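Case study: Guanine nucleotide-binding protein subunit gamma.
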Amino acid sequence: MPALHVEDLPEKEKLKMEVEQLRKEVKLQRQQVSKCSEEIKNYIEERSGEDPLVKGIPEDKNPFKEKGSCIIS
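Here is what the predicted structure looks like once written out:
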């Protein structure tokens, strides 16, 4: 099946697609950014203790730790 390129469609088809998309978007439940951002902040703060990017990986559990060292003499 060939890829569909919007720029290749006639203007009428483009407008139909746009109206379809707008109908989908108007049905979405919207929330205030201030409320959502507070929820996201709380979610992140609650889980930050478990986050290896924040907390770090213990040396004994780090799969990328070098097993040995290289000595050049």
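For the exam, be able to explain this: Residues 11-26 form the longest helix (16 residues).
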